[in-house]
Amino acid sequence: AQSVTQLGSHVSVSEGALVLLRCNYSSSVPPYLFWYVQYPNQGLQLLLKYTSAATLVKGINGFEAEFKKSETSFHLTKPSAHMRDAAEYFCAVRVYAGGTSYGKLTFGQGTILTVHP
Amino acid sequence: EAGVTQFPSHSVIEKGQTVTLRCDPISGHDNLYWYRRVMGKEIKFLLHFVKESKQDESGMPNNRFLAERTGGTYSTLKVQPAELEDSGVYFCASSQVRGGQSTDTQYFGPGTRLTVL
Predict the structure, then answer these.
(1) Which of A36, B9, B19, B112 could cysteine-pair with A90, CB 3.0–4.6 Å?
(2) Model confidence over A71-93: pLDDT tens digits?
(3) Other CB atoms closer than 10 Å to residue B95's CB: what's the count?
């Protein structure tokens, strides 16, 4: 079975500072990995995904993540934080379930990002 | 194109009552998923429909929960009778089957916040 661990339930940065949100996964087969973001009073929005192509994945709003198999990690980064980046971020893993189904997502606990002026 | 919609956005009921949550997936999406986030915990998978068939219901907590997707369009999730531990946010997601293979992006609705008193 797969699992996801997000290190740090709360991360606080200053506007303009580097954002680093940590995610480690456990999977017995090659995983698909995702980062979702939830802004207040909205649903989860996909930021980016890794599906076994390039290990450095670029997403929306200037975010990127690097898949490191040796470290079983998929950390999310952004060089310069904006106030609008304040939200909750979720890392998720999915294993191909066979047939026409890509199966369920297994989520980490979520990380709330606060951006200070 | 309309996104995934969920109704109601909030529901407050008393223990022992019945509540029905509804999810309308993106038009043409055959995959429909239900997830739940209990306060302070991670988002957890409940079940997965492919059209009107239940593909995976391994996450359903007990037989007080009944999910249906008649006609393969919208889905309902009924909780009867509701218990205090059922409180949380219920998310619905959908994804597309294209050419016999599911795409690997799940699109989420805004969620229904259920409070059981």
Answers:
(1) A36
(2) 999 999 999 999 999 999 999 99
(3) 21
Output the six-digit token pair for B93.
């997601």
Say whether residue B95 is in contact with chain A using an 8 A CB cutoff: yes
pLDDT tens-digit series, residues B15-45:
999 999 999 999 989 899 999 999 889 999 9
What value does the mean pLDDT of chain B take?
91
Do the Cβ atoms of B41 and A109 come within 8 Å? yes
Instruction: Kindly determine whether residue A110 and residue B104, on different chains, have CB atoms separated by under 8 Å.
Output: no
For B63-94, letters b (16+ CB in 10 Å) and e give eebebebeeeebbebebeebeeebbbbbbbbb
Q: What is the dihedral of CA A67, A71, A2, B115, to 10 degrees?
A: -80
Length of chain A: 117
